[in-house]
Each structure stands twice: as C-alpha cells, then as structure tokens.
Amino acid sequence: PNISFTGQPLDIWYVFMLIGLTSYAGFTDMWWLPLVLVPLNAFLAWMTIRWGVANIASNGQKLPLTFEGSPWVYIGWYLLLYVSFITIIGWAWVTSAWMRWLGRNIAGTRRAVVFNGSGWGILWRTFVTVLACIFIIPIPWMIAWLSRWYVSQFALADRASVQA
Fold first, then answer.
1. Which DSSP category does 111 fall into?
2. Cβ pair 76, 94 in contact under 8 A
3. Which pLDDT tens digit goes with each residue over 24-54?
4. Confidence of residue 1 (pLDDT cuts 50, 70, 90)
5. d(CA 71, CA 43)
6. Residue 44 and residue 46: Cα distance in Å, rounded?
7. Of 33, 34, 77, 118, which one's alpha carbon is 20 to 30 angstroms from that of 42?
8. Closest CA to 77 of 102, 52, 53, 54
C-alpha cells in the first residue's frame, strides 16, 4: 500500500546528462551518429530502470527491489524495438514482450511482477493517443491515459504460478 518513489534526480544526474547530450546527436551533420549511439542510449535507459526499481517504497520504507536484467539483453530488446518499426505494427508486440521481460527481472519480492498488456492493447491505445494528440490540447490527458494503462497492466502474481 501507499507506493511511492524515493529517488532523487541527483542520484544519477550523470545518466540524465548523458541522455540529454546524446539526444542532440540528431542535430549534427553526421546522419549516422544517432544510430551509433543507440547502444549507449539503451545502456543509459537500463541504468535508469535499475535506479527506478531500487527506489520504490511502500509506506515510506524502501522496498528491497532490484532489477536484475542483463544490460546486454536490455540493449538487445532496445535494438529489436528499433528494427521492429520496419513492420509498422510489430513494435507493439515487441513492447509487450519487453515489458514481460522487465517484470520477470524484478527481484526482491515474494511475488512475481507480471505484465498483462497485449500487443493489440498497446497498438490501439497508442494509435488513439497519436490521433488525439494531433489536436494539441488533449496531449497531457492522452499521455496520462496511456501511462495509467501501462502501469495498470503490471501486477503481482504467485511466483509458482508464473514459473509453471
């Protein structure tokens, strides 16, 4: 109950600074630079996930949660997501599978973290969000709606039933 986040941006300020710096790569004359930086961006995102999971608290007490996913596998998922955009809609199923992998790699609880969202669910909700954002004014509400849906798809399950 009363889940909260205890992390402070200054905990990993250097990661956020590097993410910001790498985002400027697209503004250079070197068209290939953003592609070369994809693995670095993936690694920085992995570091952010580890920090985020480690700073989840309940009733003001930090939970003993850790993210134990390999950085190499995370980078692989990141690259697969990039490649899946070629298929136009395949990215939604990659995202769903990636979220399940993220949940399986959260340790420190007696229960397993599972992601129940489907590729179709991700696809249509993202499509609706993009369409609504064309009108500019609903952008904050649509992003909040989509974010709440993603968070609601994570649940705790009995570890024995998940591994079976």
1. E
2. no
3. 998 999 999 999 999 999 999 999 999 999 9
4. confident
5. 6
6. 5
7. 118
8. 102
Stretch 53-69: mean pLDDT: 96
- Structure token pair of residue 9: 């941006």
Residue 132 contacts residue 142 (beta carbons within 8 Å):
yes
CB 47 within 8 A of CB 12: yes
Identity of residue 156: L
At a CB cut-off of 8 Å and minimum separation 6, what does 130 contact? none
Please state whether beta strands 66-67 and 106-107 pair in parallel, antiparallel, or not at all (unpaired): antiparallel
CB 56 within 8 A of CB 101: no
Q: How would you label 140-155 residue by residue, b for 16+ Cβ within 10 Å and e otherwise? A: eebeeebeeeeeebbe
DSSP 32-49: THHHHTHHHHHHHHHHHH
pLDDT at 164: 58
Using one digit for the tens of pLDDT, what is the confidence trace for 14-28?
999 999 999 999 899
62 Cβ contact partners less than 8 Å away, ≥ 6 residues apart: 6, 54, 55, 56
